[in-house]
Structure formats: C-alpha cells, structure tokens
Amino acid sequence: MKLLVVGAGEMGRWAARTLRPVSERVALADTNPQTAMDAAEDVVDGRVVPLDTDESFDCVVLAVPIPVVADAVATYADNAAGGALVDVSGVMAEPLSAMADHAAGEYASFHPLFAPPRGPGRIAYVPGQSGRIVERVRERFATVGNEVFETTATEHDDAMAKVQTGAHTAVLAYALAAGDVDERFHTPVSEPLAEIARTVTEGEPRVYADIREAFDGDDAVAEAARAVAAADRNEFAALFERAGDAVDAESRVDAGDADDAGDDAGNDERSDGPASRADE
C-alpha cells in the first residue's frame, strides 16, 4: 500500500508507524519541513513530499487540526482518487461530508480516543465508503491491540461534546477554582481531579480550543454547575441522585471496560499540517 500521511505531528507519526508494516515507504507532508523530516526518520525509512504533491497514493491519511480538515480533504482528494482517503482529526461529521463531496474512491473517518503514548486504546470508526484499502487500515489498527468500533458521525460528535468539551471545561474550571492546594490536604476525590488537571494543562491550548470550537458542551457544564451552586438542600439531593443515575447508566453501557485510554486531547496534538494550502 502506497501511503501518504499529511500532518507530521504526534498523531501523524502514530498513523505512519502503525501503518508502516502494511505499506511501502511512507510519505509525509507537513508545513514544517523539519518536522516532516524528523517524522520520516521516526517511522523508519520514510520520505518527505511537498505539500502540493501531485503524486497518487493508495491511501492518504489526514492527521491535521480540526479547523482545517475539510479543506485538507478537498486539497488531497485527488491524491487518493484511486485508493482511500482517511482522516484521524477527531471530528467526524465535517470531514465525512467533505469526503462525500470530493473523494473519488474509498473514504472513512477514524478517531483514536487516546494520546499515542497511552495507546493502544479505543478507536471510533465511521466507514463512509469502505473497501479494500479502508478495511486494511481498520484491520491494521485492530491488529496492534486497538479496539476499533463502528459508530456514526452524529453519535460520535454528540459524544465528543460531552467527553471532550464538557470534560475539559469541568476540569479547567475545577483547576481555576481550586487554585494551589497543599497536596497534604487532597482527598480521594480531589487528588485524581488535580492529576487530571495537570495532564490537561500540560497540553497545547490551541488543541483544546479547536476541540471546544468543534463540539458544543461547555455551556451544559456551566449550567449544571450553576444549578448545583444555587440548589437548596432538597434540590441538591435531587441533583446528586440524577448524577448517580447518569453514572450508573454509563456503567451499564460500558460495564467492566476500564477506561485506560488516557486523556483524549492528546490525540489532537497534531502538527500544524498543510497550513500553506489548507491553513490547518
């Protein structure tokens, strides 16, 4: 399989490394030539191609930031005209819609729900127009230990509003409200929250901002926090019970499946990708 990975950041490198065993020499493109060269060395015997390459590939993987993935689809669709166009951007409705408009062959969207250093983990998958190449990519992701599960773009993006935008908003709000607390005073509840906040704030603000703009979810968290803060004793008890019911419902859906995928925003720590063409 002749493979091009557009975007040589962390997720692009992950895709290149993972797919290398089922590919010929991997080609990489990035707005930063040095980043592309470093990634080419990282995936072993890779090569760098210009962002405006007219070369044809069996598979083009778009590992670009969310705001420019639709433009990247339009830009690189011709490069995958005889094969498959795949994105790992983290949003699904927009790129799949763009692929339906521009892709001449197979196309699909994958979202690794983990930062590459914390993989393997779960990968959401929507087969827009599946075929031999898309299936090879899906099988390879599964072969290295990932749980690849099929979903829809709507179901995925609705979930991301909660588990990404909503979760990030709640974590950042807690960190801002708690401030600097002597670690000796942490409780079994506050200590993991503080650790999660550290994990989140070690990331790149732009990545989290991209997620926040792509998925609504922060207003729901703010509204819930206001409701809790304004509740009297009886109202608080009712909200407490509702929260417990929500957690129990989630546990029933995902019973026994420990969430060891790590923080999700790491999967969006991609290179700035094809900014000169698609302003990634």
Secondary structure elements and pairings:
Elements: E1 3-6, H1 10-19, E2 27-29, H2 33-42, E3 47-48, E4 59-62, H3 69-76, E5 84-87, H4 93-102, E6 106-112, E7 122-129, H5 132-143, E8 147-150, H6 153-178, H7 190-201, H8 205-214, H9 218-230, H10 233-253, H11 275-278
Parallel strand pairs: 1-2, 1-4, 2-3, 4-5, 5-6, 7-8
Antiparallel strand pairs: 6-7
Domain Prephenate/arogenate dehydrogenase: 1-269
Protein name: Prephenate dehydrogenase/arogenate dehydrogenase family protein
Region (Disordered): 247-280
Count of discrete alpha- or pi-helical segments spanning 4 or more residues: 11
User: What is the string of SSEs from the N terminus onward?
Assistant: EHEHEEHEHEEHEHHHHHH
Stretches with pLDDT under 50, minimum 5 residues: 255-280
Q: Can you give the helix content as a percent range?
A: 40-55%
How does this model look, in words?
This protein has 280 residues and is α/β, with parallel strands linked by helices. The protein has 2 domains: 3-154 and 268-278, Rossmann fold; 157-257. The protein is built from 11 helices and 8 strands. It has helices spanning 10-19, 33-42, 69-76, 93-102, 132-143, 153-178, 190-201, 205-214, 218-230, 233-253, 275-278, and strands at residues 3-6, 27-29, 47-48, 59-62, 84-87, 106-112, 122-129, 147-150. An 8-stranded mixed beta sheet has the order 3-2-1-4-5-6-7-8, sandwiched between helices. Helix 6 (153-178) crosses helix 7 (190-201) and helix 6 (153-178) packs across helix 9. Mean pLDDT is 89; it is low at 255-280. This is Prephenate dehydrogenase/arogenate dehydrogenase family protein.
